[in-house]
Amino acid sequence: SSLLRERAGLAPLSSAPADPAFLSYPMHGPHAAPALPADEPARLDALAATGLVGSAPETVFDRLTWLAAQITDSPIAMLTLVDEQRQWLKSRIGIGLTETPRDMAFCSHTILGGEPLMVADTRLDGRFINNPMVTGAPHIRFYAGVPLVDARGFRLGALCVMDHEPRRLRERELRALGELAAIAAEEIRRRRPAAS
């Protein structure tokens, strides 16, 4: 993982936990916290079965995240897993956090649907306008994420890219992000025993 980052000319990731003040930052606004998926208890069980939440970085995921950033020319890319209380950043480029509270996570919105979620300008979207990641560092203005779907159809997290400027992905960039998310989902499926 560190060798891959070095070859790509990227700074090493900080292994320090997120700033506790940042993690407890209050959310404001009527649309701050996303809804829960209808299948939430079963989804959480499927996520726990992967054993990936809280685990160390892995080259296989770091490569996909790096490719997502390169293909979309985005300064931030993450492969996230959304558990009951937090979003775990299994892989990340351009951001030092290892987790965020779930109600701050853009990917908490992505897992609500089966399609990619693209937010061209977070300051014009009621779901994100008061999010601390928008109003403060890292000042996210653009987000695009594709759900990571396991073999039983549970959306466990997302592969996403972010930018500090409003923008949109071109169709080929969004398709490429979707293909990378599919590869990541296949790797995650290998971590989970087959359903009986």
What's a quick, concise take on this entry?
The protein is α+β, with helices and mostly antiparallel strands and about 200 residues long. It is about 30% helix and about 20% strand.
Describe the structure.
The model is unreliable at 1-31 (pLDDT under 50). Helix 4 packs antiparallel against helix 7. A hairpin with a 5-residue loop joins strand 5 and strand 6. A six-stranded antiparallel sheet has the order 3-2-1-6-5-4. 32% of the residues lie in helices and 19% in strands. The chain is an alpha+beta fold.
Quick check: average pLDDT?
84
The level of helicity is 25-40%
Q: What pattern of helices and strands is seen along the backbone?
A: HHHHEEEHEHEEH
Overall morphology: globular
Class computed from helices, strands and strand pairing: alpha+beta
Give a quick account of the main beta sheet: strands, pairing sense, barrel closure: 6 strands, antiparallel
Strand content: 15-25%
Query: Low-confidence stretches at least 5 residues in length (pLDDT < 50)?
Result: 1-31
Please tell me how large the radius of gyration is.
Answer: 16 Å
Span from first to last CA?
A: 34 Å
